[in-house]
Amino acid sequence: TQVMNEGWATFWHYTLLNTLYDQGGLSDGFMLEFLQSHTNVVFQPPYNSPYYSGINPYALGFAMWRDIRRICEEPTDEDREWFPQIAGSDWRETFDFAMQNFKDESFIAQYLSPRLMREFKFFSVLDDDTRKKLQIEAIHNEAGYRALRRQLSEQYDLGRREPNIQVWNVDLRGDRSLTLRHFAHQRRPLDESSSRVVEHLATLWGFPVRLERQNANGTVDLVLERRQDKRATPVRPLSP
Q: Which single residue of 66, 77, 102, 135 has CA 20 to 30 Å from 166?
């Protein structure tokens, strides 16, 4: 829950300090120092910036919590259409419900508003390895809002971010080899570090370890094999 937690922390830090400042409890110098630090934390570089490394979870989380409060306190017609259950409601109760019932993936799918998509200038790129060119699949407009929200939420789905590798077979009556099977998602190959992981696993297991990949069409490729007397070497090049 990185987006939710980091956003929650920055939202309350910002809100509490501004409340104390408005009540005369903090000096101008302190607030200027805080605002400089806060701005750096929640800064979102544009996609074409050399400093861009993805969506800043602090920026997205902070913006979403502030936007939820805005929807509760000052909803627009667009907000009432997209969020009829929370528009005009008590923002503290809405916050409590969101924190207790959602994680990053579902939080974004439930609460990311068209207004924020416009402010962040979100767009979606279709990067298909079977195509020669990239395709802009959706932008921040009426036709693209739901697709953008769905695709962004999927990026925080651990089931999609982490490889699905399962223990497939243990040959107890033979060479005691351990076979792992990777169920590839959208033809994504494993990271290069997988060879080192297999080596470490073979050292711990003490017998041969094989890593297979099951493709979308049901075929299975032997990707890597580690034996005690050999270094880990690819059996064959990975094919799409």
A: 102
